[in-house]
Each structure stands twice: as structure tokens, then as C-alpha cells.
Write a structure and sequence with these properties.
Elements (H helix, E strand, L loop, with lengths): L3 E5 L7 H9 L4 E5 L4 H5 L10 E4 L2 E4 L1 H11 L7 H27 L1 H26 L14 H16 L8 H11 L2 H7 L2 H5 L9
Parallel strand pairs: 1-2
Antiparallel strand pairs: 1-3, 3-4
Helix pairs in contact: 1-6, 4-5, 4-6, 5-7, 6-7
């Protein structure tokens, strides 16, 4: 069995949740920066012409949420039963909805879109606050159930990029604040975020955040 290989650009972007999953669970992997010769060498290798891409021996998997789900199934990070798995899937799709709004603002309308995006953020975060309160263990950093799941890393990354954008955005959300701090303080996550590799990566490809 070879190590996983994560092929992506040297940004946090849609690859960061996978990196967090690897680091928090002590899973060994190599990372390949595909920025150089992307169009000529790499793009045609990707099923949808985009990254991140996870390679696991002969498996070549793109789409960031598909990657997280695959790793979740393989490493016991998909809840303890079918009901928890269903909530994990639901939260994953909610994260995707907000991430799309964030990415659209960042890349297409940052100057005029940032203020209304931040103003609307409390309404967008409220459903996650309710879900973590009802179905998770915020103080342990579990968004669903009483153990780690892949969606924890997607939610943590979503909160993290929004905290950078709007530093006080979690002030009125005690469950999300506790969840965010719990994952931030995990040894594997904390050590990773102190590395030069993490510090040197921009959140987005255009440098806006």
C-alpha cells in the first residue's frame, strides 16, 4: 500500500479540509503542487479538469467532497450509524452552499460584495449553530455524534476562512465558537498550522480573503 497523494495548487482553497483530516488523524500523504504545467500536463488527467485530486494506488478521485467522503468511509470518519451519516451528508451540502457564496464573492465581487456577504453571514451560520448544538459535541469538536467525522474538517475550514474575513463572526454562536476552538487546539491541527507550508499558503488563488 502506497501513501496517499494529494494533487492541488499551493493554496488552502478546496484542499485544506483534506489536509486537516490527514493531519488530525496522523495519516501519511505526499502533496504535489500542480501549478506548473497545469494546462499542458495535469488538467487532462483530471476527470472534470480540476483539482484537488486524491490518488490512492490506482484510484484517482477528484471533487473535494467526494474525496472527504471516500476518506471518511475508509478511516471510520462517517458517523456511528446511518442516521449520523445522513446528518453528516446534510451538513456537508450546507457547507458547500455557503462556500459557493464565499467563493463567488472572493473571485467575482470582492470589492462590492464583501460588506453584504459579511452582513448576511449570521443568517448563514445560524443553521450550523443549531445543528451542532442538537447533533454534535461542540466542546470536543464533533459536529455530529461523539466522534470525529470528515465533515468536522470541512466545517472547521469554512469557519476559519470566514473568521479571517470577519473576525467577530462567531461571537454570537457559542456552539460554533467552542467547536472551532476545540479543533484549532488539537495537537495535529495546531502543529500543522505552525508550519511554514501552512503559513505561506494563501487562502484563495487571487490573494483575497
Amino acid at each position: 500500500m502506497g501513501k496517499y497523494q494529494l494533487i492541488y495548487f499551493n493554496v488552502r482553497g478546496r484542499g485544506e479540509a483534506t489536509r486537516y483530516l490527514f493531519k488530525d488523524n496522523g495519516i501519511d500523504y505526499d502533496e504535489v503542487n500542480c501549478r506548473e504545467n497545469w494546462a499542458k500536463e495535469w488538467k487532462s488527467q483530471m476527470a472534470f479538469g480540476q483539482t484537488p485530486c486524491l490518488k490512492d494506488n490506482d484510484l484517482s478521485l477528484v471533487q473535494s467532497n467526494a474525496i472527504l467522503r471516500y476518506l471518511g468511509r475508509k478511516h471510520g470518519l462517517y458517523g456511528s450509524n446511518e442516521e449520523e451519516a445522513a446528518y453528516i451528508d446534510m451538513i456537508t451540502e450546507g457547507i458547500e452552499d455557503l462556500r459557493v457564496k464565499y467563493v463567488t464573492m472572493i473571485y467575482k465581487n470582492y470589492e462590492n460584495g464583501k460588506e453584504p456577504y459579511v452582513a448576511d453571514l449570521p443568517k448563514q451560520l445560524l443553521p450550523f449553530e443549531k445543528l451542532v448544538t442538537k447533533h454534535g459535541d461542540d466542546k470536543s469538536g464533533f459536529s455530529v455524534g461523539n466522534k470525529r467525522s470528515f465533515v468536522d474538517y470541512a466545517l472547521f475550514d469554512l469557519l476559519d476562512i470566514n473568521v479571517v474575513l470577519a473576525p467577530n463572526c462567531l461571537d454570537d454562536f457559542p456552539a460554533l465558537s467552542a467547536f472551532y476552538k476545540a479543533i484549532l487546539n488539537r495537537p495535529g491541527i495546531a502543529a500543522y498550522r505552525e508550519t511554514e507550508a501552512f503559513k505561506e499558503r494563501t487562502i484563495n488563488g487571487n490573494g483575497k480573503q
